[in-house]
Amino acid sequence: KQEVTQIPAALSVPEGENLVLNCSFTDSAIYNLQWFRQDPGKGLTSLLLIQSSQREQTSGRLNASLDKSSGRSTLYIAASQPGDSATYLCAVRGNDYKLSFGAGTTVTVRA
Amino acid sequence: NAGVTQTPKFRVLKTGQSMTLLCAQDMNHEYMYWYRQDPGMGLRLIHYSVGEGTTAKGEVPDGYNVSRLKKQNFLLGLESAAPSQTSVYFCASSQLQTDSYEQYFGPGTRLTVT
Lengths: 111, 114
Hints:
Helix content of chain A: under 10%
Largest sheet of chain B: 7 strands, mixed
Radius of gyration of chain B: 13 Å
Shape of chain B: globular
Order of helices and strands of chain A: EEEEEEEEEEE
Oligomer: heterodimer
Strand content of chain B: over 45%
Shape of chain A: globular
Number of helices of chain B: 0
Structural class of chain B: mainly beta
Strand content of chain A: over 45%
Structural class of chain A: mainly beta
Distance between the termini of chain A: 41 Å
Order of helices and strands of chain B: EEEEEEEEEEE
Number of helices of chain A: 0
Distance between the termini of chain B: 36 Å
């Protein structure tokens, strides 16, 4: 059974600092990995999707890396802003097309 | 495009009552999913469907039933609600004919069982 862990559970940084969010998974036989953002009381918004054959994906200030062999992914958010405050979820898709989620990292960016 | 929509947004039930949550998607997606999200835990898959007329159990299926009579709709039923089913329920869908299988999520239904 795939286990997905996100550390830390919560993070507070001053505005302008770069954010580094970690995700680890136990089974390296994955199809892809997806990073989501969730605002309080809201649904999930997909940020980046990395295929198992890729090493990284970038979108604006966001960059996600994937090291399948070590079971790790990192989400980098450059020059954080208060609007980046949210919970970030990592989800891994296995070859059975089901997603396994981490519990998330709750980020607070202080103005 | 409305994407994925869920009805209702909030509901309070008493133990033993039944209800149905409706998920609808207008993206012609083949796959649909129901998840629950509890504090401090990731989303857990309840049931899923790989096409109209098909359903399958996920990680935590007990106490729930589902139906996919139309491709665009996926219903989640609670026959006899229990306090342990207090949670936020999310529906998602994804396309079969792409190589990414990216999932798109609805806004969620917050259910409280007293």
